[in-house]
Amino acid sequence: MEITTKNFIEKLPEIKATIKEADFFAIDSEFTGISDKNIYPFDSPEDVYLKTTNSISDYIIIQIGLCAFRLQDDKILCKTFNFYIFPGSRINVFTSQGESLKFLAENGFDFNKLFRYGLNYVNTADEEKLRLDLKEKQKYRANLVNSKEENSNEHQIQLANHIPIPEEEQELINGIRERIDNFIKSDEKQFIVENCNGFQRKLVYQILENYQNEISHSSYTDENNKSKGILIEHKRSAEDEQVLEEERIKKEEEQLLLTIGFSLVLQDLSKSKKLIIGHNMLLDVLYLIKQFFKPLPSNYEEFKKFLHKTFPYLIDTKYFCTTHLQLKPQFNSTVLQHIFRTVSKAPFNLPKIESESMEYEYSTDQPKEHEAGYDAYLTGICFLSLMDFIKVNVKEIKQTSKMNKIVNRIFLGRVNDVNYIDISNKEPSVKKDHVFYITFPETWKQSDIFEKFKKYGFIHITWINSWSAFIMLHNRLNALAVIKTIGHTPGFTITTFEQYKQKQQNYRYVSDKRIFTSPNNSKSIIGVSKPIESSPGSKCGTGSSNREETSETHKKEESQKRSSSFIASSKTNNDDEAECTNNKKTKLFHDNDNW
Amino acid sequence: MEITTKNFIEKLPEIKATIKEADFFAIDSEFTGISDKNIYPFDSPEDVYLKTTNSISDYIIIQIGLCAFRLQDDKILCKTFNFYIFPGSRINVFTSQGESLKFLAENGFDFNKLFRYGLNYVNTADEEKLRLDLKEKQKYRANLVNSKEENSNEHQIQLANHIPIPEEEQELINGIRERIDNFIKSDEKQFIVENCNGFQRKLVYQILENYQNEISHSSYTDENNKSKGILIEHKRSAEDEQVLEEERIKKEEEQLLLTIGFSLVLQDLSKSKKLIIGHNMLLDVLYLIKQFFKPLPSNYEEFKKFLHKTFPYLIDTKYFCTTHLQLKPQFNSTVLQHIFRTVSKAPFNLPKIESESMEYEYSTDQPKEHEAGYDAYLTGICFLSLMDFIKVNVKEIKQTSKMNKIVNRIFLGRVNDVNYIDISNKEPSVKKDHVFYITFPETWKQSDIFEKFKKYGFIHITWINSWSAFIMLHNRLNALAVIKTIGHTPGFTITTFEQYKQKQQNYRYVSDKRIFTSPNNSKSIIGVSKPIESSPGSKCGTGSSNREETSETHKKEESQKRSSSFIASSKTNNDDEAECTNNKKTKLFHDNDNW
Known about the structure:
homodimer, 595 residues, alpha/beta, Nucleotidyltransferase, domain 5, Ribosomal Protein S8, Chain: A, domain 1, Alpha-Beta Plaits, 7-stranded mixed beta sheet, 4-stranded antiparallel beta sheet, elongated
């Protein structure tokens, strides 16, 4: 079911009940942009986290699918909510990536609905303030009513501050005065003062003060809450004022719920501490925390701690398929849709799932790929099928060693060593002594580098620019020999990765610029960090995603050298549309594939 | 007529012809966000330019209306194009303001159309590169064909770089080999290798090299230019290859036009050097230059020079109505729709305008406010009516002194002295000796300040924070006396604005943060610069725009002091939905009103 501002208030109790009753959830989200991070195959989980948080800019989540599953003895029930999320106020400034919005629009995403009826949200600190403010505002009004007749002092001060009416506005103001005088004597119920500019409105409010015993006034708004003028009515009785005030409070409470919006749902989800399934969920969790809870910590361990506290029980189906010994051999590709295709036939069994009502119905017969609700639903189905295959009951995950190394691990693409973030434990640290930093003459091609390293077996080249690169040996045993035995070639230098890092005393990733700085060569390295990210070379030639191929076709030929030379002589896999999962060595250059 | 990628190629010749034939144009644009600048009433045009350029963030234009008018002896003809503009590639990262997108969506803007079919654009430098790249790419292909048979050296190198086929891919690759062998012997016209991940595609391309005398292959894309697989066909003859190459070149040339996109239109518009009418057009020209030509210069004079070179003949209808002696008394409000309402009745005459065909038809009977095309059309109509009223022929503007001080002046809202940018001349510089910087006890209210200044006549207060403000005297003649005669009050200090600026040695506006820094009190001033902009106080109480009232209602009570105390005892006008135009003194706090 779609949830927007149009039905949020009405459906909120049901959403809350659903979260309460569910056994587990599957989620998915759609963003205004995706991280364009420059991940190296030898990056650690912490490196990936820092690079990603620095590169997700101010992109936001605009749709969240939440699929709640209930496991009963004889059947599995599910309800899917598809939330449109959009902060429609002036202070909400966010970034978008042209390609992402285009991609979503081409896949049927309704942006008109999003911008008109998307749910608001607030972070934890702002929510508290909002609640407090409303309480004070209502208290202030209550006090005002009580003290109105007793104290006319304030009124005197107001009168003293009055703006003299300029000559050119006299006619307008006199007209309005006359209109009010006639209204007071008449049986008319109300009238509206319209078409005034701000200054004129101010003058009108001034004269209204002189009529405060005869008329009541309020600002008149249209259905979009836009001010259209000043509504003038006969003076209301105390009882009428009371009824009006109660209505007003009810409206304000509803408005508060709408302002806190989707955050109310996430809070319940977090408090439930129940299992949440996602597919390739790194960006999902990063955006969730950043947008709805608090800024992403610059400290990796702090991030893990906060994530664990917020969502203490996660499973990433991409990591599950890629890693679990029984599942790994079954999947050529772990793109969500490909997983579904695989689990739809033997040796897998698709679970039989009943939607709780027609409103919540998605069907894999009518795929709505890239709609968050549908993708969440698909993720849940795949997860159930995987669990069925490895013969583990979802309710007994915590009791079985089979899932030990799957729970709370979030998949990391493109990296070679530790390809997950372990939310509840420290990841193993892996030495990088098989990685080298080299510089060479600009005339060198890929084949020159391969020639230079041929005695050490397969290598992977990460080009920095036309005269430097990182080299990663696939056979770590050869690493020790390299520096000693590689021999001298004019214009060629080599250092270990550790030495390289030490040299870069100021080596750091600067906010969302992904810039290396060093006192010695900051300029030249800054100059080239961009091409690595945006050129097809960094995507390993043929492996750029379909979307990239489209937008970057014109660049392909221009960077032939970079593009071709990036293909290492080893088996590499730069799969963003699909990944090889058979061999750890090949897990290079995965992209965020559930797009 | 709507112009999107769907009809751009087809309509481009007609657009170009229309620009060539027109006598003048009216334009309007819609943005993803508007400047949230903190303009002071005593700011100079240069101050406003710098503050605005620093605060427009990376907002972009997403729709441009271009209405071309032809003046004939007996009638006025017009054609309106409504261009959807959207950069759909990965590298295009831009910002949006939630409120702006919501506002446009509520006014019927079709974002789904925008994101799917919006026109691309490139700046001048990129266009040159694109053209060069395509030429080289085509030349490269031509050379390749010529050298194919002569030189198999490259092929040998390619083979040497081949990746060994891993065991787990053998079955797939053998299957594809077999499929190709059968295809070669068959009458089938083609087949497609699908569902491969990136690594697998790479392996497939490798084996295809062995079949290069028997088959031709190309990447197979869907209607959205998305790769779907590898299309295999029987080896094409040289003639077929030639035909195919010609088709390919034609497609590439079309693609190039689509990539340069809307920039092609703007270039023609600029080259035409014809009169362009806009309404409140500061943001329009700033965004136009920034987005389609080059970054906005940090030097004000450089900006004016470039703007004058690019669009040498501009009239801003807002400035026209606000300033022209015959028009000024006629308008209470210079919001575009209000101007139209005024010129729709006596003493004005609406021009009779014929659309050149149904396709270009807008009608004021069916208003489409906030659609750029319609607003451009409306601007053109208002302009013609204004010209009729002051009895100047549009073709003779340059010859009449009546328009001397109107042409090439762009309206500036909210400022008190020079309320325009003069594109072709230096603006007069105005001394600020009637402006003072004061500090005072935090307990002070507005009335304390008024009391302190009462002997100097009307003042305007620009609050900086709860203990400091700028005071502007409306009667400049009183300025000299202030420092000498204001007298001592504990906790109160006063300096002239000039002294204040000198003290702030590091006084500067920092990029889009609008922050003052000073070595002495940077912290406290930074801390308060935000509330001034976003609190209703800065909008002068009742004068915040309708849109603001909605989103900021909850803040109103909390900042009562700030809000009320901001209302100077003088006549102020903080008009964003409409402006007072009768008195220069009142031109404070105008907002971008043609929204």
